[in-house]
Amino acid sequence: MAVLELINVTGGYTRKPVIKDLNFTIGQGELVGLIGLNGAGKSTTIKHIIGTLIPQQGEIKINGVTLKQDIDAYRSSFSYIPETPVLYDELTLKEHLELTAMAYGIDEKTMKERASQLLSEFRMEKRLNWFPSHFSKGMRQKVMIMCAFLVNPHLYIIDEPFVGLDPLGIQSLLDQMDEQKKEGSSILMSTHILSTAEKHCDRIILLHDGRVRAQGTMDDLRKSFNMPSATLDDLYIAMTKEQDNE
Amino acid sequence: MNNLSQVWSKRFNHYLSEVQKYMRFVFTGHLALVLVFVTGAVGYQYSEWLKVVDRSFPAEWLVAIIVGIMLAFSRPTTLLREPDQVYLLPLETQMGYYFKKALDWTFWSQVGIVSVLYIVGIPLLNKVTELSSGQIWLGLALVIVLKYINVFIEFNYRYALRGKFVSIDRFMRMILSILAIQTILTEQFLFTMVYVVLLLLFHFTWRKSVKEQPIPYEHFVKLEQNRMMAFYRFANYFTDVPHLRGAVRRRVWLNFLYALVPYTKNNTQGYLIFRTFIRTDDHFYLWVRLTAISALVAAFVDMPIVILIVSAAISFATTIQLKYALLSSKEFRMDMLFPVDSSMRTKAVQKLIRTFVFLQAVFVLLCSMGDALFYLPPVLILLVSELTFHLSKNPNNA
Predict the structure, then answer these.
(1) What is the pLDDT of residues B105-160, one digit of tens each?
(2) Kind of pairing, strands A78-81 and A31-36?
(3) What are the structural domain ranges in chain B?
């Protein structure tokens, strides 16, 4: 069964839809890249999936349930890393981790085990009692990443994770993603770093003007664009040119 | 040129509307009443004192010092913003026009204060000195001229030194301004001329060095941000200023209170709310201020009915203000995605308010010990708070 399922989803901020008739699924243990230009509808799609926007038409299911059917089950099934870190100014790093664990019903012992492993992976152990006002953009990003992985959900939704992270941070994130995949979790990741997406994603969804332009493995995409040895960068540029000519 | 004039007038209008928006709240609040009352009381005291003041009182010095100190504080209002360092960069050479507008406004917005201070001093000068009214008005003219010079010097000085050593400049101008006013009031016009010429020399020196330098955007932008921040903080005492982020402090000595929200899924929002309240200056000091007023009234006022009214009113204010501060929020927060019941936040806020209103009641009880019916105000505080919380609407559903 698909972990995430979008069926004919149309939606946006106002009545004028930003995303139109989206259809895609993500299976268990899959890492899927959501690729598109600025304004293609990546973040809007993600906002619909996490439930801060409600689709005007269509349905979104996580593990077979919609938000309406079972809000608790829906929400406990995923964790989300936003593009811009959203932290509480009045909570320390340690308290961010505790709060997240409490919310997802993780007991204290498990929380401590997972947290200590993540803290050393992202080299943040020494900053446990710091407030976010003293963190750089990259460190704030790491707090969000650690909170998301602490939850250990079925599905990760990650919006443009690489901007602001140092190379070691990027590597740690990719390692974590690989590990979670092996354990059967699924990941939807939007990004502009195409070389990384090409290397790590099992499948790619190309979004253009709010519609799915093409989706599949790299080989599928090459076939559909008729460019046998193309990189994702080439395909991406071909797609935008094709649209310009229309 | 035309462009920059539009930039200025647009900003100026925005600034005025922003100030008006909040001043309306300030002056419709209790402050207006307090101000009228205080001005009346001070005016009365002053006129009583004038009846008995000694002829040897150094009135010229007093007026010169007070007005001189105020003259030295001539912080320029440039209305520059952070993006200007990028977008106005190509217009560097034309910015003179913009700054002229800015300094004109700085002068007009600040000349009132020094003039009023001087005018308040006139009855004293009339009483103590032999000055003719013409001479006294000549003094006012000098004050206005001095203000104009001071505004330009402070701007150029900040410009030239990029905001460094401002206090040295202020001190020098303060001394020269005081001496200029004192000498004109004691009819030593030659000295007045000397001091004014010195100020002008000061002015021309800095103006010259300004011409060789790029605009110190960073300093002026920071100055503007600080000024607006101070204004918003002030306005925040009377109304809720949306884009004001309160400072955060750890307040370790209150850590024991977190024991009220132990680690369980049901306490998720409580965990967050208790820390938010205790560590955010705005919320926490609101409670401290209101509790202090209630306790002081209970301790020092002898009329039980007054104590009851005040403690009930303050319990109401504490509850309603904290409820709105902690529940209304439109920004995205991660807890909006948490798999917890959506009513949990309201319940957590209720628990917090109960805790801190209870503490308020305890302080009032301690302060009213010994009075007859000492137990009534605390009971009333708890009762009013509960009623307020239940009968007021939830700001998120509004």
Answers:
(1) 999 999 999 999 999 999 999 999 989 999 999 999 999 999 999 999 999 999 99
(2) unpaired
(3) 2-235, 252-391
Name the nearest CA neighbour of B68 among B164, B195, B165.
Answer: B195
* A78-81 and A155-159 beta bridge pairing: parallel
Confidence at residue A166, expressed as pLDDT on a 0 to 100 scale: 92
Residue B65 has, within 13 A of its CA and on its CB side, a CA count of 5
Burial (0-12, 13-18, 19+ Cβ within 10 Å), B391: exposed
How far apart (Å, rounded) are the C-alpha atoms in residues B319 and B360?
11
Q: Cα dihedral sign for A71, A74, A77, A79?
A: negative
pLDDT-based confidence at residue B253 (cuts at 50, 70, 90): very high
Give which of A189, A193, A121 is closest to A155, Cα–Cα.
Answer: A189
Q: Which residue has the higher pLDDT, B247 or B273?
A: B273
CB contact under 8 A, B248 and A100: no
The stretch A179-196 carries a mean pLDDT of: 94
Check CB contact under 8 Å for A88 and B337: no
For the segment(s) A4-77+153-245, the CATH number from 3.30.420.40, 3.30.590.10, 1.10.3210.10, 3.40.50.300 is 3.40.50.300
Find chain A residues with C-beta within 8 A of B337's C-beta: 50-52, 75, 80
Name every chain B residue with its beta carbon within 8 A of the beta carbon of A86.
332-334
Q: What is the mean pLDDT of residues A64-86?
A: 95
Helix (H) or strand (E) holding A243: helix A232-245
For chain A, the average pLDDT equals 93
Residue among A90, A156, A159 with most chain B CBs within 10 A, to mutate: A90
What pLDDT was estimated at residue B244?
Answer: 67
Rounded Cα gap, residues B171 and B157, in angstroms = 13
Q: Which residues of B touch A (CB under 8 A)?
A: 245, 248, 250, 263-265, 267-268, 271-272, 275-276, 279-280, 332-340
Q: Which residues of B touch A80 (CB under 8 A)?
A: 334, 337
DSSP secondary structure code for residue B248 in this structure: B
Check pLDDT > 80 for residue B241.
no
**pLDDT the model gives residue B329:** 73
Mutate to test the interface with A, among B249, B272, B334 (most CBs of A within 10 A): B334
Integer Cα distance of B287 and B310 in angstroms? 15
Q: Which residues contact A77 (CB under 8 A, 6 or more apart)?
A: A3, A62, A63, A153, A154, A155
Residue B281: the pLDDT is 84
Q: What share of chain B is helix, strand, coil (3-state, %, to 5)?
A: 80, 0, 20
Task: Delimit the domains of chain A by residue range.
Answer: 4-77+153-245, 88-151
pLDDT in tens, A38-48: 889 999 999 99
